C-alpha cells in the first residue's frame, strides 16, 4: 500500500485524467468533477467513510444552499441539517474561508442541536470541512466524514486540502466550459431565428436582430427564448 501522499496524489491524477479526456460529445461538467472528488475522497483519503460538497450560490442579496454529489444519504442528511439550522462546521468553514475539523462529535460543544442530531441519526463521529472557492457566484466546502473519532490528523488534513484545491480548479474550469458551450448554443439558436426572419420578411441580418430584440422587449421575454419560439414555429 502506498503512503498517504501517494494515495491522494492518485486521486488528483484520476481527477486530472477525467478532466483532460473530455470531448465535445462527452464534456466534463462541474457536477462530474465534484462527483469524482467525493468518490475519490472516500477511496483515497484515509479514514473517510462519507463525502460530499456543499455549495452556496449568491443571487444578488439572496443565497441558496446546494448539496452536490454526496456519496450516500449521510452527507446529504448532514447538509440539510446545517441548512435548516443555519449552523455547523461546513457553514463555518465557508464563512471563515478555512478548514474546520471536528475530532469527536460525542464531546463537540459548538453546535449542540446539530451534534445531537448527527449522533442520534448517523454513525459519524468526526469530520473535516475544507473551504472551496469556485467562482464569484458560488463558494462551498468539501465535507469528509468518518465513523471513527480523531480520524483526521495534520498529515491527512494536508492531503485533503491538496485534493480540495485541485477540485476547486477543476470545478471553476468546468463551469467556464459550460458557460462557453451555453453561449455558443445561444448564438446558434439566435442565428437560426435571424435566418428564418430574414427569409420570411426579406430583411437583412441587422434588421432581423433588431426585430427580435424589439419583440423580446414588447413581450418581456429573453431574446433566446423568443428565438427558440421562432425556430419551433418553423419546425413544429
In helices, the fraction of residues equals: 55-70%
The CATH topology of the largest domain comes to Beta-Lactamase
What would CATH call the architecture of the largest domain? 2-Layer Sandwich
CATH superfamily descriptor of the largest domain:
GAF domain
Using the coordinates above, name the CATH class of the largest domain: Alpha Beta
Distance between the termini: 60 Å
Overall structural domain count: 2
Q: What shape does the CA trace take?
A: elongated
The secondary-structure element order is HHEEHHEHEEHHH
What assembly state would you assign to the polypeptide chains in this entry? single chain
Label the structural class.
Answer: alpha+beta
Please tally the helical runs, counting DSSP H or I stretches of 4 or more residues: 8
Amino acid at each position: 500500500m502506498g503512503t498517504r501522499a501517494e494515495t491522494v496524489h492518485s486521486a488528483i491524477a484520476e481527477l486530472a485524467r477525467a478532466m483532460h479526456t473530455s470531448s465535445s460529445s462527452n464534456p466534463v461538467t462541474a457536477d462530474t468533477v465534484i462527483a469524482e472528488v467525493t468518490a475519490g475522497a472516500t477511496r483515497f483519503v484515509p479514514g473517510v467513510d462519507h463525502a460530499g460538497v456543499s455549495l452556496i450560490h449568491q443571487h444578488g442579496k439572496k443565497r441558496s444552499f446546494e448539496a452536490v454529489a454526496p456519496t450516500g444519504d449521510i452527507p446529504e442528511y448532514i447538509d440539510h441539517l446545517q441548512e435548516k439550522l443555519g449552523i455547523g462546521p461546513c457553514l463555518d468553514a465557508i464563512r471563515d474561508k478555512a478548514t474546520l475539523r471536528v475530532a469527536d462529535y460525542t464531546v463537540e460543544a459548538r453546535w449542540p442541536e446539530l451534534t445531537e442530531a448527527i449522533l442520534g441519526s448517523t454513525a459519524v463521529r468526526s469530520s473535516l470541512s475544507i473551504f472551496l472557492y469556485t467562482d464569484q457566484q458560488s463558494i462551498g466546502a468539501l465535507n469528509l466524514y468518518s465513523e471513527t473519532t480523531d480520524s483526521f490528523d495534520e498529515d491527512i488534513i494536508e492531503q485533503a486540502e491538496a485534493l480540495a484545491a485541485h477540485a476547486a480548479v477543476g470545478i471553476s474550469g468546468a463551469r467556464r466550459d459550460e458557460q462557453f458551450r451555453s453561449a455558443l448554443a445561444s448564438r446558434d439558436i439566435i442565428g437560426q431565428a435571424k435566418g428564418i426572419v430574414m427569409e420570411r420578411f426579406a430583411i437583412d441580418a441587422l434588421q432581423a436582430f433588431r426585430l427580435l430584440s424589439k419583440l423580446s422587449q414588447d413581450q418581456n421575454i429573453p431574446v433566446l427564448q423568443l428565438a427558440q419560439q421562432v425556430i419551433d414555429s418553423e419546425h413544429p
